[in-house]
Amino acid sequence: MWKHKSEEIILILTFLLLISNLCWLMSPKRVKECNNDKKNIQIFLLAGQSNMAGRGGAIKKSIGGNTTEAWDGFLPKECKPNKKILRFNAAQKWEEAHEPMNYGIDCLVSCALGPGMAFANEILKKDSEFDVIGLVPCARGGTPLYRWRRGSYAYDDLIRRAKSAEKDGGTIRALLWYHGEGDMRTKNGSSSYKSNFEKFVHDLRSDLQSPNLPILLAVLPYPKKPFEGPYIEELRAAQMGINISNVIKFDAKGLEMGRDGIHLTTPAQVQLGRMFAHAFLSLKNFRSRTTFSFYKFFPSNIFS
Fold first, then answer.
1. pLDDT tens digits along 234-248
2. Which residues contact 75 (CB under 8 A, 6 or more apart)?
3. Is 4 a catalytic residue?
């Protein structure tokens, strides 16, 4: 009888141990939270579609009999972690930043490498005295611009995460925006992009009480087959034509696409991050009508 009791106790303890381990694995508290002085965090919001969420190094992988996308794990030196770079995670806690940046926000398994870490590392490389950088991922794959209207989930979550990130005294310095892949598919999406984006910027600045918040806007590069974007010229013209103070545009024309013709490769994501950094660092010389050229920041043979 004692033998049976002992076996029951062992089973119960084993079950409790498994439950405890499962809870620990799922808990956001196990994340390596940062103890930096949060009052000095320079906050950057990362928003847009799947390329901002990160698809660099995404590969097809079979999980549980289902085929999905997963990150290949390759981490370029430009995207290495740095103690001065933090990430505002899905549990709304600051942690040491790492790829995949958008994990838990928009995706789980299919998250891959985006431009965030390359952006932050480039700023620190160019300005070693820059304070701690806080990246707040908010991108949503497959969301045309009408899905970023005030009152929509994508927009409201962006505002909610931004306000939560600055509660401890950090300062929101800019929004990084890479978007439009869905809107180049339709005539209405491309033709209304300029007015819809200007409304988005107005609402964003109003809700964050930051009337001059810099917006770093990447003008989309041309896709390639098999992706179909018949209104890419109209979409690019709309983005080029946006003329609002402190909207810093740069042309991402020439960035390398992966096999699907629309998602950026890992090297292209690194280049995009550096382009965002140079756009931000150009703010002191910014003029509202300026559109920065990709080739202004990188040599012409960068793809060779």
1. 999 999 999 999 999
2. 99, 113
3. no
